[in-house]
Each structure stands twice: as structure tokens, then as C-alpha cells.
Amino acid sequence: MNREKILVIDFGGQYNQLVARRVRECNVYCEIYSYKTDLEQIREMKPKGIILTGGPNSCYEEGAAACKRELFELGIPVLGLCYGAQLMMHMLGGHVCKAPVREYGKIEVTVDQNSKLFESVSKKTICWMSHNDYIEAAAPGFEIIAHTPDCPVAAAQWVERQLYAIQFHPEVLHTTEGTKMLSNFVYEICGCVGDWRMDAFVENSIRSIRERVGGGRVLCALSGGVDSSVAAVMLAKAVGNQLTCVFVDHGLLRKNEGDEVEEVFGPNGSYKLNFIRVNAQERFYEKLKGVEEPEQKRKIIGEEFIRVFEEEAKKIGAVDFLVQGTIYPDVVESGLGGESAVIKSHHNVGGLPDYVNFKEIIEPLRDLFKDEVRKAGLELGIPKKLVYRQPFPGPGLGIRIVGEVTAAKVRMVQEADAIYREEIAKVGLDKSIGQYFAALTNMRSVGVMGDERTYDYAVVLRAVNTIDFMTAETAEIPFAVLARVMNRVINEVKGVNRVLYDLTSKPPGTIEFE
Ligand code: GLN
What pLDDT digit, counting tens, does each position of 455-479 carry? Predict the structure, then answer.
């Protein structure tokens, strides 16, 4: 299919995935590529427009990240953001240097000139700035279209050459009219029509999967998480019972989650696929006996998962395709797409499992951001409860229990977590808090209940807000809600006599509690 596309050229800035997400919110498909990408390759992709991102370098320094000058001569509209704007000016003959006053945070920008970029944008508009360098003089041919008290060139354009530069970050939500500006760029300047829609994506994906698979057999490991569920339903709709889903219940899922997965995908669910649930709880508890070190627990759970899946796969025999729930941030963060400063190896990308006998891999969500996966899930008719599930680590409750994992402790944390989630939802906070869950500490202490001495475990409640999952702030939950959770947990969960609230942000803490 010939879908229109915007390219985001990544110079290593921290908001680069956000740029792509905002563009896609305007219904225009967008992909991230490193600044090292060949000009020829860029030309071949026939993008409708190119966006250069921010980045940590100073463009006038030796060895700074740069693109080819010819990028500005392709006849394709280019929008430079922050570093991208500075680089454009620097390469085309303007002057960029250290700013006498660095700008950081929300700053009022004054729009001086009419520009397609600022159509329907207020003359004075709040924008997010984060720079030490500035454009002292725009390159010849450009006209200045916006400024701030400390920044003479907050935006510039060269209309005939379709080159646009802005010093601030439209992709950050603090820039109140940022999405409007990006939408102006892709529609008014690049001439996009906006053909990126989830309903069409889902329909096309199902059709092309059906063509690709033909009469082949497909195997999918289901975890109960959002990504694997959406991938599985897409495959089920495309090839029906040529698909086999193996769901390994490691006994470390949230309360009732195993049954919920079975309800949707099992024999009484609405899809005609082959569903195999492996109840491997005891096996995992056995392996985890006496193990306290969190990294070791993660390793054991990961390896055991593979072993169980492998055994099932052997019973099924050779298949043609294996499904993986890779999503776009996995691709970018593995260094295949962009130029992220933090490049992590990702279990989903690259390393193919050699324990399953298959010919090809299918990654139906490879192009999607998480919020798009959810939208695709809703299009596919997957229950909301499943689609909006909170992020949950692969090792599950195994790493929300400090110290040794036992069946009794799993029950405690499951019960406490279910109560916590229920109370949060009751007051409507489930839509505003990023992530929240209960964990079980390894601490026992003395209490008194019904005039009797207790010596029981302490549950810890965690709730954080995060935009990027790299940093997080503790959420402020009304005290009355916390008190109600405390009350219920102590009354209803046997073996627990204390409830604590974790105030730690990330860093120095992590989001999980292990
Ligand atoms: N490093 C450049 C500066 O300090 C660009 C910063 C950015 O892109 N956010 O001005």
C-alpha cells in the first residue's frame, strides 16, 4: 500500500518518539530514522516531509551530528526543531552560537509574520524551550517569523524552498499550540491528506496477513498483556484456526487474570483459534523456592517460561510462522530506527527464539506506538478491560514480592492489589494515575488484631505518574482513599497487618518494587 509518510530524522534528542506520535495523532504516518541515514535511502522513501529533531550537541562544534546539505535541496519540505533548526541555519549560512541567556521551560513566543506554520495560532503563544545555543542570525533567504525576549529567531521560514525552523519544541504538550503547528506543517506545507487511521490499518493488516500466511500454521505466545493480545486477535481474524495460541500461566499474574485471558481466547471466547493454557504455577513456585535476589528471580522466570513454551511448541510440531508482539518503541530503542541516547537490547527485537521450529516471524504491531496498539485493539473488538490494562512486567508478581516467592505470598499480593485497584477505580483515579499496584515487602512486624498479637507482612502501595517511563513522580492520592485501602487490606487479606505508601520518585527509585 502506498501510504503517505513523514520522516523524523533523529539527532538524539529526548522527545523524538513524541514528535512521531504527535504527527500520527494528526492521522499522518511517520517513521524515525537516524541522522546517519543515507540521503539516497531517504529519497527512495518519498516522504511528504522531513522533521529534524532536537539533540544534545552544539551544531558548530567539531564532530556534531549533522545531515547532508543536499537534504535541504530535495524539494521536500523540512521542519527543523531546536537542534534541527540550529543545524539548518548553521549549514545554510546563518550564525549559531552559545546564547547569552539560555531558555528553559514555558516561554511566551511572539509570532511576527504570517506563516502557514502558524495558521490559527495565537499571536502570543506559550512554547516549551530547552536550549543553550541560539540562532543569532538566520541564514540568507530566511525571514524571521517569531521571537522571544531572549531569542531573536524563535522561528524562521524560507517559503519558496519549503524550509522551516523553530527553536522550541512543538511536540511537548507544554507548547499549548504545538500540535496545531505540526498539523499545519503536515497538511498546509507538506500537502498530506491524512490517511493514517486505525480502522484502515487493522483492515489492511488482516488482509495482508491472510495473503502472507496462505494455508500455513501460526504459533503465538500469549502473555495476557496488551501487545500479545492485540497481535493474537489480529491473527485470529486473519487466519482463524490456523492459529494456535499458547498461554503459559506462571502463577504470577494479577488476580483472576489467567481466567480473564481464557474467557477471551479460550473455547468459550469469540475467536476460532486453538487455545492451549498451560497451568504451570507449581513448576514456577518450585523453581523459585529459596531464591531472594531479584535479578536471579527474573532470570529463572524468564528461562522457565521459555522451557514451558518450548515443550508445548514441540508437541505442536513444526509451524510456518511465529507471532511476536514487537511494537515501534522496541524497534526504535533497539537502535534499528532512531538515534536514542539510551539504547537497550530488547527481547522482542532481533534475537529469534531457536527453540521453536518455524520459518518466518510475523510482527503485526511493529509500526505502532502503544496508544495506537490500544486503538487497534478497540477496533478489533477486544474488551476495554484488556485493552487498557496497565503495564505489567514479564516476571509478573515474582518481582513485586520482595524476597522469596511462595504461593501464599502470591495470594496476599494478588488480593491486596485487587482491592487497591478497585478503590482507585471507584473514585475515578484510574484514568489519571499512570501506574499503580501493590507489592509485598519481606518485612514482618508486630500488630494487634481482635486483642490478639499478630506478626505479619507489610503491603506497600505504589502509584506513579510518568510521561516517558524513564522518570516518574509519585502520584498524590487523597489520604481518605489510602486509608480505605489500608482498612480493607488489613481486614480482608490474611497474613498482612500493615500497609505502607511508597513516596519514592524515579530516580532514585524504580517504578517496580522488587
Ligand atoms: N544542544 C542544543 C542547545 O543546547 C539543542 C538543544 C535541543 O535540541 N533541545 O541549544
Answer: 999 999 999 997 655 678 999 999 9
131 is catalytic: no
Q: Strand order in 243-249's β-sheet?
A: 274-279, 243-249, 218-222, 321-323, 360-362
Residue 135 one-letter amino acid: I
Max Cα–Cα distance, the chain, nearest Å:
84
Nearest-angstrom CA–CA distance, 460 and 420: 10
Pocket test for ligand 1, best of 18, 90, 101, 131 (most atoms within 8 A of CB): 131
Cβ pair 222, 246 in contact under 8 A: yes
How far, in Å, CA of 483 to CA of 150, rounded? 49
Residue 504 C-alpha cell reads as 519514592
- Which amino acid would we find at residue 354? D
Please give the number of the atom of ligand 1 that sits closest to the Cα of 134: 10
Between the CA of residue 461 and those of 483, 507, 508, what are the distances in Å?
Answer: 11, 18, 17
So what's the pLDDT on residue 146? 97
Average pLDDT over residues 129-152: 96
Q: How far is CA 20 from CA 23, 246, 342, in A?
A: 5, 34, 18
Task: Tell me the pLDDT tens digit for each residue of 46-102.
Answer: 999 999 999 999 999 999 999 999 999 999 999 999 999 999 999 999 999 999 999
Non-local (6+) Cβ contacts of 208 within 8 A are none
Using CA atoms, how far apart are residues 390 and 514, in angstroms rounded to an integer? 18
Nearest one of 381, 111, 370, 104 to 237, comparing CA atoms: 381
Alpha-carbon gap, residue 223 to 479, rounded angstroms = 35
| Å from CA of 57 to ligand 1 middle | 7
CA distance 153 to 338: 28
Residues flanking ligand 1, CB < 6 Å: 13, 54-58, 82-83, 130-133
- Of the candidates 479, 471, 476, which has an alpha carbon nearest to the alpha carbon of residue 505? 471
**Which residue's C-alpha cell is 491472510?**
210
Confidence of residue 351 (pLDDT cuts 50, 70, 90): very low
Q: 3-class SS at 316?
A: helix
Cell of 47: 516522504
